[in-house]
Amino acid sequence: MTDSAASTRPPSLPSDDEMWQAFLSRDAAYEGVFVTGVTSTGIFCRPTCSARKPTRARVRFFPSTRDAVFAGFRACKRCRPMEPVGAPPPWLRPLMERVEADPDLRLRDADLRDAGLEPARVRRWFRANHGMTFHAWQRAQRLGRALGRLSLGDDITRTAYDAGFESLSGFSEALRRLTGSSPGRVRGTTTLHLTRTSTPLGPMVIGATDDAVCLLEFADRPMLETQLQRVTRRLDAVPVPGETPATRALAEELDAYFHGGLRRFEVPLLTCGTPFQEAVWAELRSIPYGVTRSYGEQARRMGRPTAVRAVARANGDNRLAVVIPCHRVVGADGRLTGYGGGLWRKRRLLELERGALSGDSSRSSGASGG
Fold first, then answer.
1. Same domain assignment for residues 41 and 92
2. H or E element that contains 329
3. Stretch 226-252: mean pLDDT, rounded?
4. Quick check: pTM over 0.70?
5. What is the number of other CB atoms lying within 10 angstroms of the CB of residue 218?
6. Is residue 319 within 8 Å of residue 270, measured between CB atoms?
7. Which CATH number covers residue 37?
8. Could you tell me if 358 and 211 lie in one domain?
9. CA dihedral 197, 321, 83, 135 (to 10 degrees)
10. Same-domain pairing of 257 and 365
11. pLDDT, tens digit, for every residue of 1-31?
């Protein structure tokens, strides 16, 4: 990148050295931060593209795919930078639609080949995006539905056979591997359904009961595992892959939010915090869309002016990123400080909200936020 290009770099873009190192190491934390254009081929890629790396002199950095396209570059066919991170690629979508239409299907490698899919390719995508093979994902989906039935008190034997297991012992063993508990133990407990959704800032993990969302976190964040443990402990819940009406509703609302068309999330929430955390998170939800407040102001509005550090800690314990907008809290001097999803995401979220407001003068900037 030339000196003149560097001088006009958007403030949200890291330095050339940072982006170059992220590009070399295929650092997934930089997905959504920039794309790379290769001048010798005219192609632009994600930071994580597996293609052979060009020399640094042939690489240009862009803050968005739009900038790369307007600069005359075309999208890489290997990493598909125009598609949301984690979204099923076109070759896989028919399979996903088939499973969604009939969740009880038990597809084997031969079925995949009959559909024109190479099992190894399907397996690699599921391992990279779901942490398990396609067949393990199918089994987990069936077990998740079985857990939902057991939690309502259904008969264990009937549930096992309806889930496609040939014996009660096989069902019990599969359940024990997934949850660490026997079928009898999980009867009457809460089932925490976990699914992923794609966003412009990277995939997010949604956790929900049958009725409410209790977890939303970026999939690449180290805190995800800790937050999941806290939620399952507070709810005495068993986490399993799967969807509920609440997860689907939130995925739709997130899509509308990231396209500038939603300013208040309406999906039911289950926040699972201490009384103090609940008060902090309620105050966060009162911050209007597109507005920022300092930690000190947040504490004063709660009537706890000396509890700034405690308020900041509770903000950091927020388990519902974006929906409970801790990204709208900044330092006393206006600088962006601590955000579990990474400061670059905090900056992008604030830019999105301010951009939506500036493009819609018919609405008040004090509209209630999500």
1. no
2. strand 329-330
3. 84
4. no
5. 22
6. no
7. 3.40.10.10
8. yes
9. -30
10. yes
11. 333 333 334 445 678 888 899 899 888 777 7
Task: List the CATH number of the domain containing 138.
Answer: 1.10.10.60
Contact 23, 59 (CB under 8 A): yes
Contacts of 355 (CB under 8 A, 6+ apart): 260
Distances (CA, A) of 345 to 34, 87, 195, 245, 262: 12, 19, 21, 27, 18
CA-based max dimension of the chain:
70
Tell me whether residue 45 is one of the annotated catalytic residues.
yes
Tokens of 204: 């997010």
* Nearby residues of 181 by Cβ (< 8 Å), 6 or more positions away: 175, 238
Count: domains in the chain: 3
Which residue, among 348, 362, 360, 329, has the nearest Cα to 258 in the 3D structure?
348
Q: How far apart are CA 83 and CA 80, in angstroms?
A: 6
Residues 155 and 281 placed together within one structural domain of the fold = no
70 CB contacts (<8 Å, ≥6 apart)? none
Both structure tokens of 339: 């955000």
Same domain for 148 and 93?
yes
Range of the domain at 67: 3-75
Instruction: Note if 49 is an active site residue.
Output: no
